[in-house]
Structures are given as structure tokens and as C-alpha cells.
Design goal:
alpha+beta, 5 helices, globular
Length: 210
């Protein structure tokens, strides 16, 4: 039985029904809804909705896989890939990456098929003694921002707009220059390898980043 007020996403996952998601945080009061991967169709509604924001209603009929949902979901996924370096074999999160999990669950390929690659060329911040922040790998899920606000010192936030949007400390200063309490929650919640402990970096990875 689903508790009153529960979101469709969590109700589905709790019952073994897979809905892809990157930015959903169960404990968050307001869902971010940025990745657009958790789309579903609900009978009676004209357009697909994000399941992380939709409350379960009595007698609700939800379709997690329809032609329209699959098309929109695949486009959203490929858009994420267009900004993400597809260097899985040398990535510290290889085989423990949310993008790989989504691709496996949905039968997607981790390569661009319709969209062009728009790589970021942002500097990698390895100034902190314990971890590295690579904004080029960031999928803008916002989980680190939420975690830093809840358990850290609130140093992380979204910066800029549109295609230039990124996660950054205030005024884009290096991580070593902010009041970081080293709670490592940003690393724990990151679904890819934007935040990674230095001791977890593969050999040769992260060199030449300054």
C-alpha cells in the first residue's frame, strides 16, 4: 500500500517498477525535476509528467513505458550525453555510474546517435586535499547542492544560465578556498564522477588538470 502523498516515482521503485532518474532525492521537500528522465503518462492527463513531482492518487493509472514517454526520455538522455565525456573505461565511477545503469536498464547505447557532442572545457578543480571536482562530468542533477545545504556548509549552488549552467562555489573560487567541512556528502550523492575522492582516482586519471 502506498502512503498518502507519496510520489509516483518512489511508489514505482518501491514496488520493483523501474523508472530512470538522476536528480530525484526522496528526502527533498521540493523535487528538482531537472533531468526529465522520470517521465510517465497518467491516464486522464494530456501530456507526460515527471513522476518525482506527481503524487499518487486513488485509482490512478500510470504508464511508465509508452511511445511518447520513451521518445522524450531517450532525447533527454542523449542530451545529457552530449555534454558528458564518454570516457567510461578510464572513469573512477565505471560500473558504478547512474548513466551506465540507466542505459543498461533501458537498452540505450552510451554514445550519441542524433545529437552532436557539445563538450565542456572547464578547469578541473583538484585544489581540495581530499577530492576532485570535475564540472565537465557534471550532469546538473543538483544532488550535491542539496547535500551541501543539508549536511555541509552550503557552499555549492547553480551558476550561470542555459547551456553555461554549472555547479560552482560562490564566485567560482577553488574548493580549497571555501569553508568546506569535508562531510563528503557531495561525493556520496553524485551519480557520476563529478565529485570523486582522490584515493579513488584510477592511475593516470586527473593528471595535468591544473
Amino acid at each position: 500500500r502506498t502512503p498518502k502523498g507519496e510520489k509516483v516515482l518512489w511508489a514505482a521503485l518501491d514496488n520493483g517498477i523501474y523508472i530512470p532518474n538522476l536528480c530525484a532525492i526522496r528526502e527533498a521537500d521540493l523535487p528538482f525535476g531537472g533531468c526529465r528522465l522520470c517521465l510517465v503518462e497518467i491516464e486522464g492527463l494530456a501530456a507526460p509528467v515527471i513522476s518525482c513531482n506527481q503524487e499518487v492518487q486513488e485509482s490512478m493509472v500510470v504508464h511508465t513505458h509508452t511511445e511518447r514517454v520513451d521518445r522524450l526520455r531517450r532525447t533527454a538522455f542523449e542530451f545529457l550525453l552530449s555534454h558528458h565525456p564518454l570516457t567510461c573505461k578510464t572513469c573512477a565511477k565505471n560500473k558504478d555510474c547512474a548513466l551506465q545503469e540507466i542505459a543498461q536498464q533501458l537498452g540505450y547505447k552510451l554514445k550519441l546517435q542524433r545529437l552532436k557532442s557539445i563538450p565542456r572545457s572547464l578547469p578541473v578543480d583538484d585544489s581540495h586535499p581530499d577530492f576532485i571536482f570535475d564540472p565537465n562530468k557534471c550532469v546538473l542533477c543538483g544532488k550535491c547542492v542539496w547535500a551541501c545545504t543539508q549536511k555541509g556548509t552550503g557552499e555549492l549552488d547553480f551558476a550561470f544560465r542555459g547551456i553555461e549552467t554549472r555547479i560552482s562555489p560562490f564566485e567560482n573560487v577553488p574548493m580549497a578556498d571555501v569553508f568546506c567541512n569535508s562531510c563528503f556528502e557531495c561525493i556520496r550523492v553524485c551519480p557520476v564522477a563529478a565529485f570523486i575522492l582522490k584515493k579513488e582516482m584510477p592511475m593516470k586519471a586527473g593528471r595535468g588538470t591544473k
